[in-house]
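Lab manual, section 2.4: Encoding a predicted structure.

Procedure: take the sequence of the chain (122 residues), apply the prediction step described in section 2.3, and record the output as structure tokens. A sample record is shown.
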Amino acid sequence: MSDSHEHSVGHVVPISVYLAVFVALLAGTALTTGVAFIDLGPLNTPIALLIAFIKMTLVILFFMHVKYQPGLTRLAIICAFFWLGIMMTLTLSDELTRSWEMNPKPWSVLMPHIPHLARFFF
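Recorded output:
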């Protein structure tokens, strides 16, 4: 047996990269706060979401070390976001196709035959 032990360390990220990502995240937070005080009409939410997406990408790539991982890890993360997109699409397709009323009517008005059908069962 050999006395020298070789240890596999993995990928070592320089501190300067972490500091640069940290400063970028702080700048993104400041930008999000600044945009929140500017009235951009219907673009406020999409711009805030775009900034949040960029910050999320930085955290995933650098702090979670996905940038330095093999393809299978990246594939799993892509599949997770694809699944999240499917779930959001299904949720929004349900939410956006409903016609909500501010003062909904009682069931007896919406379905007048229900009380009459209940007599047959009870």
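Check your result against the sample. The helical segments are 15-36, 44-63, 71-96, 107-110, 114-121.
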